[in-house]
């Protein structure tokens, strides 16, 4: 019997599975839906943190903990503010373009 007379259920193709509405939406930390949770030790420190949040248009719930030996817990804020930047790589010249070292030769005969 040939493959054209296959009896049974044909599974859906893998490339068609991921279409449609995305139910796993990405929520950005520091937004209204996902505010940062910060702990500070004084009212003055809370005012400083609020100005930083306003400058960067972030949302957070700030709790004042004035117990002895308590420390500020603003690690979530530091993680959002110090996000690593994408590094841009300088493009190498083409084979027949002038070399970037300044020798006025073609790249393929100088540094390539």
Structural class: alpha+beta
The pLDDT mean sits at: 83
In DSSP terms (H or I, runs of 4 or more residues), the helix count works out at 3
Encode the helix/strand succession as letters: EHEHH
Radius of gyration: 29 Å
Q: How is the largest sheet built, in terms of strand order?
A: 1-2
Number of strands: 2
Model description:
This protein is α+β, with helices and mostly antiparallel strands. It has a domain at 28-81. It contains three helices and two strands; from the N terminus they run E-H-E-H-H. Strands 1-2 form a two-stranded parallel sheet. The longest helix is centred in the middle third of the chain and has 13 residues, at 43-55. The protein starts with 35 loop residues before the first strand and ends with a helix.
Summarize the structure.
It is built from three helices and two strands; from the N terminus they run E-H-E-H-H.
Summarize the helices and strands and which ones pair or pack.
Layout: E1 36-40, H1 43-55, E2 60-64, H2 75-81, H3 107-110
List keywords for this structure.
3 helices, alpha+beta, flat
């Amino acid at each position: 019997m040939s493959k054209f007379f296959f009896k049974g259920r044909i599974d859906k193709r893998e490339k068609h599975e991921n279409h449609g509405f995305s139910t796993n939406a990405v929520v950005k930390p520091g937004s209204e839906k996902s505010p940062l949770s910060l702990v500070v030790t004084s009212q003055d420190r809370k005012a400083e943190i609020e100005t930083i949040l306003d400058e960067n248009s972030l949302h957070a719930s700030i709790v004042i903990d004035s117990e002895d030996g308590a420390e500020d817990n603003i690690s979530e804020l530091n993680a959002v503010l110090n996000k690593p930047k994408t590094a841009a790589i300088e493009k190498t010249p083409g084979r027949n373009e002038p070399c970037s070292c300044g020798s006025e030769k073609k790249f393929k005969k100088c540094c390539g």
